[in-house]
Amino acid sequence: MRSILPWAMPSWSTRGLVAIGLALAACSTQPADTAAKTAAQAAHHAESGLPVVPLTVSHERRHHAFRVEVARTSAEQAKGLMFRTQMGADEGMIFPMAPARPAAFWMRNTVIPLDIIFVGEDRRILNIAANAVPYSETPIPSAGKVSAVLELNGGRAAALGIVAGDKVDW
Positive or negative, the Cα torsion across 54, 55, 58, 64? Predict the structure, then answer.
């Protein structure tokens, strides 16, 4: 066993300077565009593992920003927000649909009330099913073909003044 004599150990200030130098060197070795790509790739929801993207709902001068999980595959869309017990005020989930088609959603195994927002082919809201009832298996239909369905916390659309005709960008 090797022993280090106390007077041979570097001082706390020396170790601190070395740590700061290493941190600065690590920061400067990655170009800014690579760092941005790395951050974008790391944007996944902690619970679902789905990618998280910015989404904006706009009407005239009103703009509401959200961070939404993207459920792309049929398996991800089938699970949706099932079993989730909470969601942040400005969080949600988007279900892209290609090709656009009529859609109907239900609340099977969904614990929290949701606003189900049907987004048309022109990315404008067709209709909103406000405060969908948790666990209900009653189908909630779109008012036409949709390119996506957005789910937010129940009552959030009304609280923000989000209505049919508003533009949705993601």
Answer: negative
How far, in Å, CA of 143 to CA of 102, rounded?
7
Model pTM?
A: 0.76
Torsion of CA 72, 149, 99, 45, to 10 degrees: -10
pLDDT at 39 over 60: no
Q: What is the pLDDT of residues 72-91, one digit of tens each?
A: 999 999 999 999 999 999 99
**pLDDT surpasses 90 at 33:** no
How far is residue 143's CA from residue 129's CA, in Å, rounded to a whole number?
10
Q: What CATH fold (topology level) applies to the domain 46-169?
A: Jelly Rolls (2.60.120)
CB 69 within 8 A of CB 50: yes
* Beta-carbon contacts of residue 10 (< 8 Å; ≥ 6 apart): 18
- Distances in Å between the Cα of 18 and the Cα atoms of 7, 24, 60, 129 are 18, 10, 54, 58
Are the beta carbons of 160 and 154 closer than 8 angstroms? no
